[in-house]
Design a protein that fits this description.
The structure holds 2 protein chains of 2 kinds. By secondary structure, chain A is of the alpha+beta class. In chain A, 46% of the residues lie in helices and 17% in strands. Chain A is built from 6 helices and 9 strands. Chain A has a 5-stranded mixed beta sheet, with no helix packed on it. Chain A has a 4-stranded antiparallel beta sheet with strand order 1-3-7-6, with no helix packed on it. In chain A, strand 6 (77-80) and strand 7 form a beta hairpin. In chain A, helix 2 packs antiparallel against helix 3 and helix 3 (199-230) runs parallel beside helix 5 (264-288). Mean pLDDT of chain A is 83; it is low at 301-305. By secondary structure, chain B is mainly alpha-helical. Chain B has helices at residues 2-19, 21-41, 46-70, 74-83, 86-115, 123-150, 155-180, 190-215. Chain B is globular and about 55 Å long. The relative contact order of chain B is 0.13. Classes of the chains: A alpha+beta, B mainly alpha. At the A-B interface, helix 4 and helix 5 of A face helix 6, helix 7 and helix 8 of B.
């Protein structure tokens, strides 16, 4: 029986949990298609919607509103065709405050499974009409608070561009967290080497850098595949993609230095110094500069990276264990690689 | 320590002044590059001007700084080692490289102005950007040139190591340059100035710790 350290058991427990939860928990309901995109005031508008993971046929108590700011208006009628298809009939009076009409109306629905929201769903056409006509309508814009039922099931949130690929959050993002941790540990080992001149510390530092680079490559690959399905191309020269490539190049330099030196002490010293230098210069590259640029990634252009829009509570209970599991996984692999290196050095 | 730095700096300037090898070869290189660009492009607009300027600056920096440690004879390093503090060696080299690069930068901008034009609108910002970027580049590259000297003077190594390490400086610097040419609007450009300043200070602090370790054999 192999005896494992306690923290390896954490990985063994967490990783299956992350994989199972990440793949098996269903996605919440959402609206994937809506047509037409424009609604006209003082007319009857029919909006056809296509839902995802919705159950329109079950339960007759579906309601729908179009909402802008504080004002909202309820649908006159909802024609359900099947589980995923429905038509909403709206009679829209003139907007009460024409000066504040910015055109975007959000669609809010109340279903037995919980709320269904599509932000900026349709555009309210700016049609000139006499003020008196605004009053002639059976429907009125209301400012009462919308009463919708709470989410009843355990779901991951549905996001329009992401769809099912939102699950990649648990397998792509933690790779970068783990990469930074591995690089950080390797810097600590390098500093220890430079202080105490124990060649084992240098071998450890090299293993941690190697596995960190491996995680970086995996992160780039998983990110590229994700980008293909959401942003449309494998590489869109997003600032974070470029920074990831640059940081991998910087660590490529680490191995070039190691390969160009023969004497093990000189190799350990020069590469250790470079490792510290590179890691500190990596900090502005990863944490400061991307914030100054527009990015397709969440967390740029001023919005918080792990805000409630990107990561809701159901995702958190999978995401944080995933981060811990990946970090432990990286440390474990790096340790194994270090031990193999030791055996190799003893044999040859 | 200041006396040591000044002495070493003066020694570098004197050796350069006696044979004028580095500065003349680099100036010749600069002149021929811009001449080639003149015949290849004839006229350039402001966007390309900024790109050309940065390309010329990077190549100038890498070419001048690569030799800063390997130019001295190997045994002279031991001589310095017995006489002076390692940091005085580093700062004398870095300051020397900074002065040399500033001269060459000025020459590059003047030559670009002679052959094309100088479309700079915001001169204070442009000069601050040039100064801060050049000092960050010379701090980083002086350190990298010692690393490459320690690995047996492979000229390829310098290019491979320095380009990714310079990337943060070049990104913020070229952005600020575009702002000073009024090609992009950015009311927050002060943050870029701050980030280059921060990179300068980080590199300074790092080299104070790391250079002495790397210096002794």
């Amino acid at each position: 029986m192999v005896k494992l350290s306690w923290w390896k058991w954490i990985f063994i427990l967490l990783m299956p949990y992350v994989i199972l939860m990440g793949f098996l928990v269903p996605l919440g309901q959402g609206i994937t298609e809506l047509s037409p995109y424009v609604v006209y005031p003082l007319k009857t508008n029919k909006l056809d919607i296509v839902g995802y993971n919705t159950r329109f046929t079950e339960g007759q108590s579906i309601r729908a509103w179009l909402k802008q700011g504080d004002y909202h208006i309820e649908a006159d009628n909802i024609i359900v065709r099947d589980e995923r298809h429905a038509s909403l009939i709206f009679t829209i009076p003139g907007f009460p405050d024409t000066s504040k009409n910015d055109g975007d109306l959000s669609l809010v629905m109340d279903t037995p499974d919980g709320p269904l929201v599509l932000p900026s769903a349709v555009n309210l056409a700016a049609v000139k009409y006499p003020d008196s006509l605004a009053l002639i309508s059976s429907q009125k814009w209301s400012t009462n608070k919308l009463a919708v039922r709470a989410e009843s099931n355990f779901n991951f949130p549905f996001r329009n561009i992401l769809g099912e690929t939102i699950r990649n959050t648990y397998f792509h993002v933690p790779l970068w967290f783990a990469m930074i941790l591995l690089f950080f540990i390797s810097v600590l080992k390098s500093i220890r080497y430079l202080q105490k001149k124990q060649i084992e510390d240098d071998a450890k530092a090299e293993s941690f850098v190697l596995i960190g680079v491996l995680f970086g490559i995996l992160g780039t690959v998983t990110g590229s595949i994700w980008a293909k399905f959401t942003w449309g191309s494998f590489w869109s020269f997003d600032v974070k993609q470029n920074m990831a490539a640059i940081s991998l190049l910087i660590y490529g330099g680490y191995f070039i230095i190691r390969n160009s030196l023969q004497d093990p002490d000189a190799k350990a010293r020069v590469s250790g110094v470079y490792n510290v230098f590179a890691f500190v210069l990596l900090i502005p590259l990863i944490f400061i500069i991307p914030r100054r640029y527009d990015s397709l990634h969440p967390g740029n252009g001023g919005n918080p990276a792990l805000g409630s829009q990107d990561l809701d509570n159901t995702m958190r209970i999978v995401f944080y264990p995933a981060v811990i599991a990946y970090m432990i996984c990286g440390i474990w692999i790096a340790q194994l690689r270090y031990r193999i290196k030791l055996i190799y050095n003893n044999i040859y | 320590m200041v006396r040591e730095i000044l002495g070493l700096l003066l020694k570098d300037v004197k050796t350069e002044w006696r044979n004028k090898q580095a500065i003349s070869s680099i100036a010749l290189y600069l002149f021929s590059i811009i001449l080639v660009l003149y015949y290849a492009l004839v006229r350039i607009d402001r966007m390309i001007w900024s790109g050309v300027l940065w390309l010329v600056l990077i190549f100038l920096a890498i070419n001048t700084i690569t030799v800063s440690f390997s130019r001295d004879v190997k045994h002279r390093h031991w001589y310095f080692y017995t006489l002076t503090h390692p940091l005085s060696v580093y700062f004398s080299k870095a300051v020397y490289n900074l002065i040399l690069l500033l001269v060459l930068d000025t020459l590059a901008v003047l030559l670009l102005g002679l052959f094309f034009n100088i479309p700079v609108v915001d001169w204070p910002l442009f000069l601050i950007t040039m100064f801060l970027c050049t000092s960050a580049i010379s701090l980083i590259l002086t350190f990298v040139s010692l690393i490459s000297a320690k690995t047996g003077d492979q000229p390829v190594l310098m290019t491979i190591l320095s380009t990714p390490l310079l990337f943060p400086v070049l990104m913020s610097g070229s952005r600020l340059c575009l702002v000073s040419l009024r090609l992009i609007q950015d009311s927050n450009y002060f943050k870029d100035v701050l980030s280059i300043l921060a990179i300068n200070m980080i590199t300074f602090a790092l080299t104070v710790f790391l250079f002495p370790i790397l210096w002794r054999d």
